[in-house]
User: What shape does this take?
Amino acid sequence: MDNRRRRRVWLGVAALLFVLAGVLMFAGQGDSLPKDDGPQVEFPRRMRGEERERAEKRRTWVVPMVADAGTVTQERPRPRDPLLAALPRGPGRTAVVIEANALRHSPIGELLLDCMMRDGGKQLDEIRKRSGVDPLQDLDRLVITDEGMMLSGNFGNAKFQEMMGNAVSADYGEGARVYEPGESTVTRPDGTTETRRRDTAVGVWNNQLFMVGKTPDEVKAAIDRVEGRGPDGPSVIPEGSTYGEMYGVLSVEQIAKLLPPEQAELAQRLRDVAQNVELHVDASSDVALVAEVRGPDADKVTDLGKSLGAALSLARMKAQAEGEKEIAQLLDFARVQPDGDTFKLEMAVPLEAIKERLAFCKQERQAAEATAK
Amino acid sequence: MNPVLGIAGYVLREAMSRKFILAFVVGITLVLSVVALSLRLDVVDGALAASRLFGEEIRSSIRSVDVALRPVYTAAAFIVFYGGILFGIVACSDFAPSLMSPGRIEHLLALPIQRWHLLAGTFLGVMTLALGGTLYGTTGLVLIFGVKAGYWTAGPLIAGLMACVGFAAVYAVMLTTATLVRSAALSAAAGILVLVGGVIAGFRTQISSAFEDGLSRTAFEAVTLALPRLSSLAQAAGDIAASTPLEVHSLGTLLAGVMVFGFGALAVGFWRFEGKDY
Amino acid sequence: MRGLRKTYHRAFRKTGNDALKGMDLSVPEGSAFGLIGPNGAGKTTFIKSILGIVQPTAGTVQVLGGSPEDPRIRARIGYLPERLHLPGSWTATAFLSTVTRLKGLKSDAQGNSRLLERVGLADAAGRKIGGYSKGMRQRLGLAAALVGTPSLLILDEPTDGIDPMGRLEVRRILLEEVQKGTTLFLNSHLLAETERVCDRVAILADGRVVREGRLEDLARGGARWMVRFAPGVDAAALGAAGFTRGSADGVYHVEAEDPAALNAAVDRARAAGALLVELRRDGADLESVLLGTMAPAGAVGVAA
Assistant: This one.
């Protein structure tokens, strides 16, 4: 082939190759903007802006002025959020706060609502009718402690008198009423009466707090704490830890009890090493959990962290081996962050996985609503 | 013997005698041995429980070792990809110009080989060099982390091979530039230009939205359509090294595209070289 | 080599300068051909076009019965470029074996070491080329050109930088090659060398072949003789006898068509009392031929 012809061939080949390269690269990369299909989990590690605002708004309790001019009483530091103030004080106590209102407006809240309304909302209506409280509107927080339960919110329309009937009750403190346990007769709306037995004492404070305890004394102690007459120790949940849709402090005993029997060894280690566990759950998208474990011996805490990390890693490998891609993907996020005498355990549960599990609620609700019509 | 292989051997022999290429190999070896000797990974049931560098504990979280090593592998892939291409541009920029230097090119052209054999052989020689260096470095990395952490993955190796494909496209342009102007500096400049263009081309969809709709956007899209999408390749290399899902539709097609671009650039070089007097 | 015929105009793109302005030249096979001419005459361009390194704008080149673009033809050519650049970090042995492979030949270590011995580099074979002197590099270049026993040797300034003893060696090798039947194409600025090695010469000037032919034919062209007499000659008497005064003292020139006329002229001078010291044909060396050729064209320069 003569030189000129050969050169023309090379040039033609070059043009052809460039066109082919353009087509291949276009097809290979695609021209759509890359989208993130991997799960994005945000772990509740610190207070976010809206949570700080929320905590700010809850500082409603104004300390009554002591009309004792002359004697200077030492102002005791105490939480100005009545609910936090009512929580038990001191180490080894348990209190878990569920932000009912925030949870209600989260994706997972929608799912839970479906479950609550599986009967088409009859039960919820019944509660509304009988108590005068709309759990979806008036309830702000729900707290479970080792002593009992507390609800906070707006209970101005609550029909406590109708619910409690002729139970023995007394006013207590500056705006509270305590109902003692025992039998009481309640008059129904249709005029008939019903005798109920209640094993728990109930307290209502300023139509904001509804407390349930084993004994009237426990309830009274909680009211004392709200009104500043209790012990001086800090609340089991400090205001700075009120982030996430669910948060709180669990005593190691409680957690050990929660563990299944086959994890008895881990439960014992937990008892030996840790004092308490601070928990934060974020449900604003996927459910992300951060548990901060604290113990007196840094080395033992670190060792426990390593064991937990290894357990999570094994679980992930198992999920991968069994082809459970989603779980494996979320366990990718699982990690233990050691930091001296504490470590943080982070885990995530995909919203999709929860949706799948709770899908039956929605179906049942829709079916119930259809029949009601 | 095939003249292309002969020229490739010529280039390789020439490269081996260069001190800074030897220094590079020594450098890789040193880095690998320092990592191998100073890094201690404490692995419990597949979880990276603690890592120590020079005896100092690195504050990091305890998690599955492959997840924990992901950032390391991703970073390694990016370093191998961009660092390797940059080093290649600098180290190999004067092979072709020196081969075309007066007194040498006449001698080569008088030998019984086709002119395009000369360019193809140079290209092959340089690519062999790049491949050798990449395999050496990435295999070392895989071995070190494999032995230390018990986690074996060919990810970094594959990422390195992809970097070689990216470099092939860049070097083809450099070689073609050398046939136009016999200058190592210009050749390197062309290489860097393609590298930058390749990074932009990978993000063309994202960047094009910054252009006003009309001629400027169309022009940008047309130009970047033909450029090798190096940043996409780098991203994919990082993803593969870290065993995370790929963002590109088809890696094979993308790789083939970048490779074909290289051959296209090389064909332009052949065209120019065949008609050039020395 | 059956013949080299070439007629082309080559224009440099930018300047439009014609390096070769239509050249016709044929070199018989087996001859030792010398190319001489002043700087810028186009000798190197001409050589490169024989090898296909430079592509002619017009005209055709035929070497060894084919086109220089054909690698099979180039395989039979050994070439030593003017300013050969050798890879400094290689050894001579490695360089030769690479050249052998690139020439498409089987690697022949023994043959290569014989070649190195032949060019006088046997002792330096294992040393790096970077440490070679200019002359040693030229020798190595010559060895590389000789790899594969080519039918045509094209040498551009082969003795450049080589010491006088080395030149002798190179000349011996070239003569050996010519005797073996290899066609030699030599471009050297050392005219004496061309004269001693080549039997045919072409004079290039301004991109054209000005004269070409057998060396004896070119040199024999004049009927002028140089005569030197012992000091104390009668200049007027010699002038009357047909002698013209030369440049040096006692040197005279005389025109004589044949030996009889020459002897008659010498007799006349001796009769006038002049004592003959030296007699030789005027213009018999290549330099004279070149100068004689270039002078009419007004382009006398340093031959290179």
